[in-house]
Amino acid sequence: MRSIFIAGDSGSGKTVVALGLALKLQKEGLKVGYFKPVDSAKGIQHQRGEDVALLKEILALTYEPAVLSPLQTGPHYLSGGQRRDTEALKEKIKTAWQTAKDNFDTLLIEGSLALDTAASIGIDSISLVKLFDAAMLYVIRPENDYDLDKTIFINNHFRLAGLPVLGNIFNNVDRTLIDKVRGIYLSLMEEQGHHALGVIPRNAEIASPNVKQFYNTLGGELLTNEGSGLERIVEEVVVGSMTIESALGYLRRAPNKAVITGGDRSDIALTALETSTSVLILTGGLYPDVGVLTRAAEKNVPVILVHYDTFSAIERLHEISHRIHPGDEQGVRIAQDNVINYCNWQAMLQYLSS
Length: 354
What we know:
The chain is of the alpha/beta class. The chain folds into two domains: about 240 residues, Rossmann fold (3-Layer(aba) Sandwich), CATH 3.40.50; about 110 residues, 3-Layer(aba) Sandwich (Udp-n-acetylmuramoylalanyl-d-glutamate--2,6- Diaminopimelate Ligase, Chain: A, domain 1). It contains 15 helices and 13 strands. Strands 2-5-1-6-7-8 form a six-stranded parallel β-sheet, sandwiched between helices. A five-stranded mixed β-sheet has the order 9-13-12-11-10, with helices on both faces. A two-stranded parallel sheet has the order 3-4.
């Protein structure tokens, strides 16, 4: 049985690629399993992440989460006084892997937050690829030319480490960069012997969080009708601290945005509501003028009031990223369509079938 190890930095979309690829391979007649050897723990009870729960349900996997993801880490995983025995940890992972791959034609293995995560205890992504004798599939979310530099550097590292590399997928590529990726980035990679297996354009419906995720992260009070407008997507975040004269042009240029401003800035709030705004976030615990709420209700734009300052609100927004949930039929369909329409899934299928 051959396996693919899907690696990439946090936010690259490797889980979505894994999901789409798994569904396509299933349609091609393969029995596909999923395994995430090192996951990022959440909370004091070390709950396994949503990625494992998503793949477990969508692929109808019968194994418990402790098998699908046997080891958890966090930002301070070396604390606690526990002895870090690399061989014992590898054995724990290997035992779970032997179970997780049983009765499947192939196993898609997802890497952790980054290639170097858990390197201090010898279970980084490169070490695990060797342990599983898998082929590496690297997922990149490019934002500028430096990301191509990093991708080539990492591919050179794969080569020096003697890893079998299936290829690279540029994922969630902004429309302003898509032609450059296809015309320049791919050529430069091929010239150096690194293969690209896909360029997936950014899709706001799958790449952007919605207002409900903002509300769950920020907390506070929902001043408009509960459930109204919470499914709106948020593509940009704008801080409304400027004068009204300079605000209008800027607010008009930003589509589907969240506008963060003080509750006492009714001028900014009303101006934002005349543009493409998905949600108003009012800071400082200051209730807005009734005219703001009336206009927001007319526009079906949720208004969230938080009792801390603008800077704290922005800091909390760093925790937000869109995640597909098992009931998100549209997100699951888009994930599969991305692999079918924008990736060389035939090459991956050929590798697994050879």
